[in-house]
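W.,

You were right to be curious about this one. When I first looked at the sequence I had no strong expectations either way, so I just let the prediction run and decided to look at it fresh. Below is the sequence, 123 residues in total, followed by the output.
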Amino acid sequence: MRFIVNRIVVAFLLVTLAAVAASAKTKKRMVTFTSDVRVNATLIKKGNYDVKFDDMSSQLSIEKNGKLIAITGTRLEKRERKAQNLELATRESEMGPELVSVTFAGSEQNIVVSQAGMQAGGN
């Protein structure tokens, strides 16, 4: 009897862990920056990049050819309606254009870049 109970508990834990892993989503899209832009202190030169958002860690990362260029913390902001396309919002700062937010197509939330986020170096 104890053996059966142990098996049931282990099966329940495995199903629970699988459900948690399945609910974690990473969104990834290829974007083209038409001009240089900053993500906090990291300069992203114009060109094609992969933008990834991990909803479990709330981190946005920018990669080029599989190499991490920048990573930053984020927060989510509710939108009035779903985004039709991928949207990148920038603003002018004293150091040039700065990434403010990313919104993936079909999303009802803006991914807002934290101003004191983390950076990865190396362009």
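Here's what jumped out at me. Confidence is low (pLDDT under 50) at residues 117-123. And, maybe more interesting for your project: The beta strands are 26-33, 37-39, 42-44, 47-54, 59-64, 67-78, 87-93, 96-103, 109-113.

Coffee later to discuss?

I.
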